[in-house]
Write a structure and sequence with these properties.
By secondary structure, the protein is mostly helical. 50% of the residues lie in helices and 4% in strands. It has helices at residues 3-11, 16-27, 33-52, 63-74, 80-99, 118-121, 129-141, 149-160, 164-168, 206-219, 242-252, 287-300, 305-312, 316-323, 328-339; strands at residues 175-176, 181-184, 200-203, 234-235, 238-239. A hairpin with a 2-residue loop joins strand 4 and strand 5.
């Protein structure tokens, strides 16, 4: 082998961890921090698996090893959607490696993410409207918890149905109390998922506005973010992170706030009441479950798919496929106006 060929071989002989880091570094220039973090999390298991199986170079991978990794994912209690996400991330990594000639250009074709049924793709996890009523009634009547950040986050996610990124991006001036209006804008480094396409103005009801005003005037830490902007939702360090909003949602939906613990634990000593462990409570719900419940509830109230999609920042097709989760009685009530008096003898047709 010539000196040039030997150098070329050395440069392009990347280990799985080196390939993953190089791929993620390339993504940092074109994707949001949240997307980059998602790639990193999804590839971590592949990197650890490769190390355990003594795969020292990406060149060692072939169709058999890719099938072995997918089988490994299936035996480690990963949900079908999780397996698809991790295999999709690996496929993206292999495409990148093929483009820089680290692996054979045909290898990505052998890493095909599994096709899921509609039932496997969607989650039934949602905050039911009956539970949302219990939580929000508790907060609105409480002298201790009214206007806390947990209360405000629950009010906003439930009554709007937006994603975490929408609420994180809000600045102090995006709230217009006199009009009860919130303006969602894409202003990097805070981002909306579809950028300008998800910019919109949203109205909220008076109780939501009052809780938000209480938070803003009495509870909100007066902080600026790293870019000098005044966030609407803040912590003692500045703009709330995605993880902070997620934890607040979990804390807001712990049933022991207003009733006895369904798991026979004592709230005073339960570790799940702590911010860092709040997601472990079996009965609490995260932002996605609250968003799903909210969207279903809005549709049950007769709001059209198009209007709900605009309010929640999604397409009507996405709303139908992933977020509309009515039970049989809710479906019946949606049909009731057109069907309860359906009689052939009185029908004009």
């Amino acid at each position: 082998m010539s000196e040039i060929d030997e150098t070329k071989s050395t440069v392009r002989n990347l280990s799985p961890v080196e390939a993953a880091e190089r791929f993620i570094a390339a993504r940092e220039n074109r994707n949001s921090q949240k997307t980059v973090r998602s790639y990193r999390n999804r590839l971590n298991e592949f990197v650890a698996w490769a190390e355990e199986n003594d795969i020292e170079s990406m060149r060692d991978l072939d169709g058999w090893w890719l099938d072995e990794f997918e089988r490994y994912l299936e035996t480690t209690e990963n949900a079908p959607t999780t397996i698809k996400g991790k295999m999709s991330a690996l496929n993206q990594l292999l495409q990148y490696c093929a483009s820089i000639e680290v692996v054979d250009e045909r290898l990505p074709e052998k890493c095909e993410p599994p096709k899921l049924t509609r039932e496997e793709e969607t989650s039934d996890d949602l905050l039911a409207s009956e539970d949302a009523k219990e939580y929000l009634a508790f907060y609105r009547d409480s002298t201790k918890h009214y206007g806390t950040i947990q209360h405000v986050v629950l009010e906003l996610i439930w009554h709007i149905g937006g994603r975490i990124s929408c609420f994180r991006a809000l600045d102090y001036g995006d709230w217009y109390p006199d009009q009860r209006k919130l303006e969602f804008r894409h202003r990097p480094p805070t981002r909306l998922k579809k950028e300008g396409r998800h910019e919109r103005n949203v109205l909220v009801c008076e109780p939501v506005a009052e809780a938000l005003d209480f938070w803003r005037e009495r509870e909100r830490p007066e902080k600026r973010d790293d870019n000098g902007r005044r966030p609407l939702l803040t912590t003692s360090h500045g703009r709330a992170s995605d993880s902070s909003i997620r934890c607040w949602a979990y804390q807001a939906t712990q049933p022991c706030l207003y009733t006895g613990c369904p798991h026979n634990s004592d709230r005073e000593s339960c570790s799940y009441t702590q911010r860092q462990h709040s997601s472990k409570c079996p009965s609490s719900r995260g932002p996605h479950a609250i968003r799903t419940g909210s969207i279903t509830w809005q549709l049950n109230n007769g709001i059209s798919y198009v209007k709900v999609a605009k309010r929640a920042a999604a397409s009507p097709e996405t709303i139908r496929r992933y977020y509309d989760k009515p039970d049989y009685d809710e479906e019946l009530e949606r049909r009731r106006p057109e069907t309860e008096n359906l009689d052939i003898l009185t029908s004009p047709f």
